[in-house]
Amino acid sequence: MTSLLPLASTTWSDDEIEEAIKVLRSGKLTMGDRVRQFETQFAKYLGTQFAVMFNSGSSANLAMLAAVRLLKGHSERQRPNFLVPAVSWSTTFYPVNQADYELKFVDIDIRTLNMDVDGAKEAIDENTVGIFTVNLLGNPAGVTELRELASEMNILLLEDNCEALGAEVDGKKTGSFGLGGSHSFFFSHHMCTMEGGMVTTDDIKFYELMLSVRAHGWTRELPIDNTVFPKSDNTWEDLFRFVVPGFNLRPLELSGAIGSLQLTKLPDFVEQRRKNAKVFVELFQESEYFDIQVEQGKSSWFGFSVVLKPRFEPLRPRIIQELTEAGVDTRPIVAGNFTRNPVMKHLSYVPLPALPNADRVHDSGFFFGNHHFDISAELEKVKDLLFGIVSKS
User: Fold this and answer.
1) Strands laid side by side in the 180-184 sheet
2) DSSP state of 5
3) For every residue of 192-209, which 3-state class applies, written as one string?
4) Sequence-separated (6 or more) residues with CB below 8 Å from residue 281
5) Is the confidence at residue 389, as pLDDT, over 70?
6) Which residues contact 227 (CB under 8 A, 6 or more apart)?
7) How far apart are the first and last CA of the chain?
8) Per-residue pLDDT tens for 74-112?
9) What is residue 159's three-state secondary structure?
């Protein structure tokens, strides 16, 4: 069967393959100069002072939360919690527990699919130490409002920007509004290093802690004049000097080299995604059958979401089947209402509130892919298929 609209497609050309061959032939394969070069370039692109590369966006989240715990401690609170949106990917949530924080789920805004800002205000309690917001499917969350709220309440703001590379609010890139922001370079995302992720920040202590957390908790990669763990006078001893509980989350030199090349192409990738989104919005907005995601700021349009109106919810299985048969890949909107997953029995969280908007997305929503090339004709066909199914019901 010919695929009409796959979920994702490669952003690579012969350029990336040639770059990979250069690295392989150099014999320098583990994290080194090419990773550091990419970090510098990425921080400049995001508009932050620092960037730390990891072997995945999920690892970036893990390191970010581990570094927060080391930086802030929060020992004065018996059960500190982070606010999280009820709709996101699993590795938004797991690192919160892995850093010994409780999850406190907040419902989403059904229009934007991001954390509801008013809900976040109501959810903050004496044990809340931060907000971990997500820019879902490329769409900026209310990052300006959440940053102001975090400042007012003297708590942290973190961003999971793994699906929103290139998105902006008032000319400022998402992933740069809080203490830290995570990014992913997985195959299906805006740019690809095979596996890979990044954390961006303007806080030097946070940056230096992540350098140590990334590689075993040692001091080897830390600058001589770092602010958190001054090195000893013995260079040899500092090769294996451990100062914090860490991981091995290092990226390959191969990924750093490809990342530098992909970053030069990223603005064009994002621009084409926005052109595709303009077509999608014109075709699908103001429908009597379903709702689409309302853009905040400038989305980088990871994918295109559809949430059926309540009376059409029973049609979702049929819609998914017929789209699949026509060669259109679909998925749930990220993980739907994550609290309805069986893994919740293994997680530590504050008692759940009602999450009606997350439930609606869970039961009535799906999304299909956007790409870095023109898919106007494909979107027209998807629109005809989808409207045809629903209008006959």
Assistant:
1) 50-54, 197-201, 180-184, 156-160, 128-134, 81-85, 102-106
2) B
3) CCCCCEEEEECCHHHHHH
4) 292, 295
5) yes
6) 204, 205, 208
7) 26
8) 766 679 999 999 999 999 999 999 999 999 999 999 999
9) strand
Catalogue all structural domains in the chain, each as residue range(s) with its CATH number: 14-260 (3.40.640.10), 266-391 (3.90.1150.10)
Residues 6+ apart with CB under 8 A from 55: 195, 196, 197, 249, 250, 251, 252, 255
For residue range 241-262, list pLDDT tens digits in order. Answer: 999 999 999 999 999 999 999 9
Say if CB 11 and CB 191 are below 8 A apart: yes
Contact 88/134 with Cβ under 8 angstroms?
A: yes
Which pair of tokens denotes residue 181? 């922001």
Q: Which residues pair with 218 in a beta bridge?
A: 242
Tally: H helices and E strands in the chain: 11, 13
Q: What is the 8-class DSSP label of residue 50?
A: E
- Nearest C-alpha neighbor of 113 from the set 92, 85, 145: 85
CA separation for the pair 246, 313 (Å, rounded)? 46
Q: Looking at the annotation, which residues are catalytic?
A: 189
- What is the three-state SS of 303-329? EEEEEECHHHHHHHHHHHHHHHHCCEC
β 128-134/156-160 pair status: parallel
- 17, 74, 84, 118, 128 from 79: Cα distances, Å: 48, 9, 16, 23, 9
Q: Which residue shows structure tokens 């919740």?
A: 344
Q: pLDDT at position 1, please?
A: 53
- Enter the tokens of residue 213: 């957390």
For residues 84 and 105, the answer to whether their CB atoms sit within 8 Å is yes
Count CB neighbours of 110 within 10 A.
17
Residues 6 or more apart in contact with residue 73 via CB below 8 angstroms: none
Q: Which tokens is 253 given?
A: 């030199």
Tokens of 306: 């559809």
For the chain, percent of residues with pLDDT exceeding 90: 92
Give the residue among 41, 46, 36, 95 at the shortest CA–CA distance from 247: 95
Backbone torsions φ then ψ of 289, nearest 5 degrees: -100, -30
Q: Please give the backbone phi and psi of residue 385, each rounded to the nearest 5 degrees, phi first.
A: -60, -50
